[in-house]
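Could you please review the protein record set out just below?
***
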Amino acid sequence: MKKIFLYGFLMGLASLSLTSCNDDEDQLSDSRVTNYVLLTLNGDQTMYVDANSTFNDPGCKAELAGEDVTSQVQVNSNVNTGEIGPYSVEYKAVNPDGFWASTTRTVYVGTPLVGSVMPGSFRQNASGAKVSWSGYDIDMLTDGEGLYWVEDLIGGYYEQRAGYGDAYSMKGWIKVEPDNTVTFVKGGNVAGWGDAYDEFLNGVYDPEANTISYDVVYVGMHFNVILKLS
């Protein structure tokens, strides 16, 4: 009886050992290396293009495990040189395992300018209390014919002064008319809060000082902004 028990015990160990070896072999056979597509932009990541010109996309190179797969790159672009403003070009490619890689180029259409927030700019709340601020640089673009894209119509008050970042800038387009009045064209949204300006008032271009000044009414507050162009 003891011999039978010992024999059965040894057979069980052998079966367990064989099963364990098979499991290890299955795990080894399933292991593999996943290679991801490596994307490299041709040219600069940020480009400036004149309004009403032609945008020549420098493209993007792609490699997969040392092999050139540039022909497999998909390109999504919203660049419209007929209108000043910021645009993007996305390049993406997928590997055989379904993993995507992507990179993006930013394209600014228009002549770049800087609007420096000048002393005299202020924010006034409903109670009449004022907060003055100045010294921040606002990115701008122009078509050379009076149209301007402004990276933050409220002069960097939340984006830079408060440090909230780009989502809290109020991007928009304004126009200097022949009589040097300044009118609002479009935009005026603040993505971070999901709202927009209420009114745009008192826009004036001073050609002698090369400044644009205006008032923006936003969520019950009054922003008086003076931008020195350079």
Q: What stands out?
A: The chain has two domains: 38-109, 111-229. The CA atoms of residues 9 and 38 lie 55 Å apart.
